[in-house]
Structure formats: structure tokens, C-alpha cells
């Protein structure tokens, strides 16, 4: 049905209705929009879950090697200005142990591969707290690795020694406190397979 167009007027069908008054808008399009918006809102949660799974896998895959213990992968002495400039510090050889800490352990225990192995493992686990923690699940998995390193050393003085080397600045201490306060959750520690490398490998 049409209307007569008058001078200065447009011709509009009397059957025209705003889109929100059409039945198919409510039956078909609104549900589609709701589903689409819901999917968009879930994307950040899915991304964090996938990222968490990837990081947890990295945490447990990172292990000490004989090359690390025997000094075949030693890094150069880092620039003091860079060593403590960031939370993570410098890891030039990419083995997960901060270079200044790795070199300190070798300097103090040049003749004991057994002690170096235990301390390097614990240092690696402590470093993970700076590198990998961004939610409760990642923190708990890092602490599980720290617990293994702690039990592998099994000596209070050496445990404290490594902690002093790794958590050696106010910035790092504050970061560790903040992360634990924000993300700490209940967890259990296994007493099996404490050491990445069997102590029987070392004769000293």
C-alpha cells in the first residue's frame, strides 16, 4: 500500500515497523546477539586458562642438567648495573638460574658437585617465582618445585644461603611478598624425587 507523495514529503509504507517490533528480531536475532556477546566475554578467561596450562607445563619441565652442575654452561659475569635492575635479573645462558647466583654457587663450592647440584636446583625454583607467577595455580606449582629443591638441599644454612642470593634486593623481596599475599592457596608437597639429578651421580 502506498501513499500519495506531497510536495516536500517522502513516501512511507504504512506497513513499515521499527526493527525492534518485528517478531523475527526477538525470536532469531536477539538470541544470536546474546550468544555472541557471551562468547566474547569468555575469551579473556579462556586465554588465561590456556596460558596457565602452558606456564605450568614449563614450570615442571624445567630441570637441572649435568652440564649446569659441571660448569659446562657457565655464563659470563653480568654487569652489576643490570644484574639487579629488574626483578628477573640476567640469565645469559638461559638455564633458568640467575647468572650472579649461579656464579656465586660455583665460587663457594668449586669442589663439590653434590652441593652445587642441590643449590642450583633450589635457585632455579626460586627464580621461577619471579618469572612465572601470575595467578594462584602458577604460584602453587612454583612452590611445589621450590619444595623439591628445599628437600634436596636438606640443610638449613645452605637453604638460607641460596635464598639470600636469589632474593637479594628490596624490590625482589617486595615482589615475593606481594605475589604470595595475592595468590597463595592451599597445597601439598611430595617427598618423592626431590632432586633433579640423583645424588649417586656425584662422588664428593
Question: Keywords for this structure?
Answer:
204 residues; mainly alpha; 8 helices; 0% strand; globular
Descriptive notes:
- By secondary structure, the protein is an all-alpha fold.
- It has 2 domains: 14-61; 63-201, no CATH class.
- The chain has helices at 23-61, 66-70, 80-83, 99-108, 113-132, 136-153, 156-166, 170-183.
- It is globular.
- The mean pLDDT is 85.
How far the N terminus sits from the C terminus, by CA atoms, comes to: 101 Å
How many separate domains? 2
* Rounded Rg: 29 Å
Helix content: 55-70%
**Beta-strand percent range:** under 5%
Calculate the mean pLDDT score and round it: 85
Indicate the overall shape: globular
- Helix segment tally: 8
The arrangement of helices and strands along the chain is HHHHHHHH
Assign the structural class, choosing from mainly alpha, mainly beta, alpha/beta, alpha+beta, or little secondary structure: mainly alpha
**Oligomeric description of these chains:** single chain
What characterizes the major β-sheet? none
Q: Which regions contain 5 or more consecutive residues with pLDDT less than 50?
A: none
Count of β-strands: 0
Describe the secondary-structure layout.
Elements: H1 23-61, H2 66-70, H3 80-83, H4 99-108, H5 113-132, H6 136-153, H7 156-166, H8 170-183
Helix pairs in contact: 1-6, 4-5, 5-6, 5-7, 6-8
Q: Gist?
A:
The protein has 204 residues and is an all-alpha fold.
